Amino acid sequence: MPEGEWACRLDVDVTLYLDSNCFERYDTLLLLDDGCYANLYTNLTKAFKLKIVGFSGVSKYDIYDYIDACHTQFSPKRTLSSGKCERFVGGYFAVIKSRLRSSTCVGESCSRLAVTTQRFFSEAECLGLPYQIYTYPVQTECMRWSNGTQTFRVDPTTTNVTQVDYIMNDKCNGDQMRTYIMSVGWCYELYADRAPRSFKWEARMLGVAALVPYGLTVLINFKGIASCGCIAVVLIPILALFFGSGGAISVGLCGNPVGMCCICPCFFVCAGVLALGLGLNSPVLRYWEIESSEPLRHISVCDTARWQDSTGAIYFYDGALTEHGEMPPSIAINISHCWGTRRKNSVTTLWNDCYFLVRPVFQCDYSGPPGLQMSDDCEEPQACAWALTSGASQYGQLPEPPKVPDCGGGRGLCGFTTHLLNHYPEMTQVESSMDTFRVELEAAARQYSLSSLTADSPFLNLVNPKAEAEKLATYVPIYYLLLFLYVPFGAVCAFLLLLFKGGADQLSGLYHQLLERYRDDGSSSGN
């Protein structure tokens, strides 16, 4: 599957049923968006794939079936809707929904699909930008390729990728197969006289933060430890220390009210660790994500397929917020009763509003800065993306309009991709708010008289990537300090409390034993 960079991506959750009412459950699938899967459910076709085509409101999915490796369609595509019982492939029916796959996503609604990417380079030694990128799931799913089927898996230490090709076989079985074991990060040479001249594999762990309690898990997401084969050696002592300190504090508290002085600060420190180290918009995780992602450079704003899934910095060689030398006014999208919270044992919902400002991002403008590189198809500049900003809904804070960032001397725009999940995560769970946002965005496109922009066009956060990373980096030492106070320091305090309490009791018991012994000795000598 051709893919972009490591991403905040949506995967497709499919629940299969045997009947048209979706009562008799058969199986569950977690599929890669636009992945070419071997069709194991019918002999009429060789492969199928699902592609997410609607991201706002009720999600939409195009389903295709093929007679080869996802090149020649067997029948016209069908569009399915999220949450509805509809015909899938073969004789099966399905209910489909999207799941977010991200290193910062926490909770049951997140995707735990592990993937690997294969990057092909036109230069030897994997130099330059890759010109072809393929992403594969690594739970040994049966994927289609030109001469049969294949599976992929990554070992627990993310050291090796194992690829098994089943030659001339449609179901990932049979005796005629080839197995390749390749090292992650190692550059393999291919052809000396033509492209591709080299390739390499990449893999990383996702979603670990949802599997282990509290802020300790953020350490596991750190790129240095996540790629280390000795992760168990690091994880087990940390978990033992964490649970040991919690248990020690509880024991100490039961017998000594002074223990409250130790346990109360831990709650506040723990809250700080959770706020900084977990959640979709964690500044610490976002900083590590930016640092571990390769920046995209010398790319066009209108080449959205290459950048819309990137998690790192993007430096475009073109892009403008002006049209005919003038910047169109930003359009406000304000959604009242955007999302709500309800306190425990309360029937009243506290509603929050959402505030957005949007501007179109054009490919270029003739009156742009001198020396701006123009692409061949820039004679009629088109709008390709939305520049999006938002405000703090809890305080009614209105956002600043999108502006041209200082890109450090670059000729084009720069920034990051952004999603509604990065602005108002709670809003994405309210269907009426998502529908309203989509309608307002379509109205904004009509107001700008731009047919090339739709509600499905990607969003950009136009900022200086280096300045943004430096701002996020300030949270990292604070996080480490809180983590130290929460785990090692808290554990030491707890165990000192226990030693003091246990030592005093033991000394008192020993003293009474000595008194009893002397009394017995005195009684014996008196007789």
TrEMBL record:
Domain of life of the native organism: Eukaryota
Transmembrane segments: 203-222, 229-251, 257-280, 478-500
Keyword set, alphabetical order: Membrane, Transmembrane, Transmembrane helix
Official protein name in the record: Uncharacterized protein
Species this chain originates from: Effrenium voratum
